[in-house]
Amino acid sequence: MTNIITEIDLIDFICEFIEMTPEESEWSEEKQKSNPPRLIRLKRINALLKAYMGNEIGLSEFISGDFVSLTPLDKFNQLRGHIEIYNKINGHHYDTNHRFYHADVSLIFKSIFKYKQKMESIFSHNCGWLIASGNLLEYYLHVISKINKSIKNEMEELNQVFKLIINPGNLTFSLIDLIENYGYPEDDLSEIDFEWL
User: Fold this and answer.
1) 3 state SS of 174
2) d(CA 74, CA 164)
3) Which of 47, 79, 114, 184 is the most exposed place for a label (fewest CB within 10 A)?
4) 8 A C-beta contact, residue 112 and residue 158
């Protein structure tokens, strides 16, 4: 992990946490006390939500796109410009007179978040295969890995949209800043995960 934690890290942490904890009723630090791998992930998410969104938005509200309505519409001008350029480059019509509304931005966010969740599930399909033996198995793992890699490259476009929606002010947070000011846990998650295998 780098010294800068981004809004894409937040999205990745949320996807991973939801994959581990699909029941929304379990999305509290109190409910995860007895499961350190999940608890540390949730604490990371909560610290990043506090850094990017302030104290008003929790995990459920974030996923539903409720945070969008708290951002003035003019803050999404970069998003609008990005979409306009993307459409022009790809030969799609873009109505420059069309106004953006909070509901539009929220819908875009919710849609690409659901898509990202599904893709992360696909990307983790081969997790657990530590050693491949035999030509057919090696072939299978290589082909799936190659396909996933090409899709991940294409998903950078969605990451850009996430950045422009979640962080239109282009804020940056260092790991030290997050630890000192937002309660980001210092725990070594890899070590905790290994202990819980």
Assistant:
1) strand
2) 12
3) 114
4) yes
H/E stretch holding 173: strand 173-174
Q: Can you give the pLDDT at residue 68?
A: 95
Q: How far is it, in rounded angstroms, from Cα 170 to Cα 92?
A: 27
The position carrying tokens 């970069």 is: 78
Distance in angstroms (rounded) separating the CA atoms of residues 7 and 171:
9
What is the band of 1 on the pLDDT scale with cuts at 50, 70, 90? very low
Amino acid 89 reads I
Q: Which of 25, 76, 40, 5 is nearest to 189 (CA)?
A: 40
pLDDT for 54-91, tens place per residue?
A: 877 999 999 999 999 999 999 999 999 999 899 889 88
The alpha carbons of the chain give a radius of gyration, in whole angstroms, of 19
Residues in the chain: 197
- Residue 4's DSSP bridge partners are 174
Enter the tokens of residue 32: 């995860």
Return the closest-CA partner of residue 100 out of 137, 126, 123, 69. 69
- Expressed in angstroms, the distance from the first to the final Cα of the chain is 21
Contact 70, 168 (CB under 8 A): no
